[in-house]
Amino acid sequence: MVASARATVTATLFRRTKALFEMRYENDRVFLVQAALLMAWHVEDSDTISNNAYHWVGQATRTAFGLGMHRDLSNRAYSLMPAADRRTYRKLWWAVLQAETYTALEYGRPSMIKSEDYDQPPLEDDDFHNFDGTPDTLARKDFCLMNAELCEIALDVLSLNAPRARWLDAGNIDTRLAELATRMPHTHDFWSCQLRINHSLVTLVSHRCGRTIDSAVLSREAASTILTTFETIMAQASIPKCSLHCSTALLAAAMQFSQDVKTATETSGSVMRAVTAHAQLERVLRPMEALSAYWPHVDALHKLCVRLCGRCSERIRDTTVQQAVNGSIDANARGYVDIPLQDIMAGYQLPDLGQMLVAEDWMNTL
């Protein structure tokens, strides 16, 4: 029954957990941070401001700051806190930082964490131990360390794009991204693929505003890497392992491909480049559809990409006809029709909590 009504079961369990959280049934604030991070993975409704990941990660971040998780608790710092608790605080802080960073990237909003606000050093080998001192064999240490380093770079990228951005060396950001790329594993296991997707997302966000002469090329390459890496994940049947924020990278790649179509059709003689970008945009639909089976909100993104493909196809066709008639492209002769996002999103509804259930089922009660 659970497998056939996944959305209903998860929605009901979330409602129960949310009720306990808001009732302050649990007083241990470390557990509250962990619970808030877990609850961020559920999409309850279309409210992306006072609900869902943006809300819950914000709760976790504020609580972590209040507990002092952002301050140095490494072995080199003086503290009366037991070693096991220090490890928990340090690992939890870096989990919060990564969740906050990717949430800010997803929604295009400021991060609550700034690089100057914490002095918690990066995790070390000693941090990947259980309470009894034995090594934690379940944690992917290399992925955790590199992803945390990538998130620190992403925080600077977010600051670089802020309305009142403080001065940052954009070239240094590129250098750090390049240096990290040289250390990333070149294997095709899931965690290596996930790291490549995250790295490409940060690169794409960093360059999509065209801040350097190479930005267009770097953005296209990052989007292509995201697409091909998702196809690798699909070939390995590892889509169920994808996190909540994977859809952000996939949508960013789709928007980049659509922008490439727009740019190419406005340049004389670049219709073939537009066709190539459109083909890549169409390839995004398969991993997007596969993700929607596990993340219901991705269904709306899939509809968006389908509509986007149609509009890009129309644009290429109109450009080809105009070239055949006039022998050139008049960039001002045809406006780019906006995609009706309201129409797309209006078709998305959350699952009915009573779906496939009878009155006696435990899931019908809070």
TrEMBL record:
One of its GO terms (biological process) is DNA-templated transcription. Keywords: DNA-binding, Nucleus, Transcription, Transcription regulation, Zinc. GO terms for molecular function: DNA binding; zinc ion binding. Residues 53-128 form the Xylanolytic transcriptional activator regulatory domain. This is Xylanolytic transcriptional activator regulatory domain-containing protein. It comes from Oleoguttula mirabilis.
